[in-house]
Protein 1
Amino acid sequence: MVFVDALGREQRGQAGDYLVEAADGSRSIQRRQIFEDIYVAMGTVAEESASSRPTASGVKRRTPNRSAATA
């Protein structure tokens, strides 16, 4: 996928990359490795409330690595 973003930059992605839409509506392409390391899935308020409790599997939620997000 290739497109020009709102700032006039060409965004080019490879198979497996993520198309990310920000709250302001801007879009960018993130490499899969970076996206999966930084971003976490968001759910509904009910899901967020439930996720703060321990799960049966013991899996804990990842938190974003903010320093990598600026790279």
Protein 2
Amino acid sequence: MPLVGVICGSKTDVPLLKDTEEVLTQMGIEYEVVVASAHRTPDKVREFGMSARSRGLEVIIAAAGGSAGLPGCIASWTTLPIIGIPLPTSELKGVDSLHSIAMMPPGIPVACVAIGSWGARNAAFLAAQILGIKHDKIRKAYDDYREGLKTK
């Protein structure tokens, strides 16, 4: 059963999440990927957010470019931790997305990672840290990864 839900607003965003998927796999974390737009398919986004906990998800990674409404929209429908990845898909190269994701109103937090591939990787590592609080196998995988950084 997936512990992490990865959601993005467009099929063209899916390749930008390759690094997220690779890290989740490396950490031994089951995940699902869903394409749903906060603006074009809001009912699908609402259903995803409202059903996430009952489907066994414990963390959601939401990637968005441009106005980047998706992470905040998901956060409005669930109290699970949300990690937002700003995607560099606009003329502003993701800076607009970074600001949109980081500036959530009090009480509806979204963790925001870096723009692009660094953020895509760090979103998965942050999910591993969160899940590691409860799941020993994931904590060990992340601890082993961090230990390996010392030899690089």
Protein 3
Amino acid sequence: MSAPSQRSLLVSALAVALGLVLAGLMAILRGVAPGQAYTALLGAGFGCRAPGSCGLITALQFATPLLFTGLSAGVAIRSGLFSLGQAGQMLLGAAAAGWVGARLDGPAWAQLPLSFAAGAAVGALWGGIPGALRAWLGVHEVIVTILLNQVAPLLLGLFGFSRIAATAQLAPLVGGSKLNAGLFLALAAAGLMQLWFNRVGAGYAQRMQAEAPRFARYGGIPARKAMLGGMLISGALAGLGGAVEVLGVHYRLVGAFSGGGGFDGLAVAALGGFHPLGIALAAGLLGGLRVGALNGLQLQLRIPRELGNGMIAVMMLVVSLEALHRWLRRPGRPVPA
């Protein structure tokens, strides 16, 4: 993945600015001064007044699953596919990691890595299904991933909801919080994805399949292998995100997580320009905005926290319109009069 272009950075900055403008307008409608709303939103989401009252720590906790699912969506896009299956992959990855962490009877030192491996493997399997269907049967991955998101919750009964063994739990990095070493694992995954697409032959093949499919075909790059590989990696990243949630936040399988569900991954990836560094920054931003909307706007100012989702929606609209504009003006496509 090449570095984000200046245009992408400007569009993301504009998207964030318009989202904040929306927050100010909504605050006015609620009888609150915009400056007061911004102070509450940003202070609660990114401030740290005391060790026991640090919104930044909670924001980083929320950002961790967003980073995993953002990387998942970004890898799929960079491989020429459009995956919306992060929610299902994350849920089943969490279920598999939770099952191993709760039931594995083996040496304590092996429980945590094996739990992560199970989460990544099941996530990869769930991501590989739409990849294989697209590569060999031509079934569009958007349809398949959306359908698989609906099937995934039905399979949770196969895993159970037992509590994770203490030897398979991620300890908090800060006392009184749920922030854990999963954050560093997510950042490491972002770095590895940067190296994968720019320094490894298989990653380069996946990127060329997306950016220049005709060149890839003439260069002998196997399109089916590139598609399947991209979706396997995408699913594994989402599965790891689910594993971090059960092993380091909830310590048992739950039906909903603090982030990463729905289409959050795509939102983070798009706002970050589909680049690992951009995705990491976008995950931190959205995590902070959600914490600020809850603890700042709703609890302090009595403004509904749904305003946070409204801000994110405006950001996504701006980024999507810019992406549509680039697609309409791409070489070989006529520009509408």
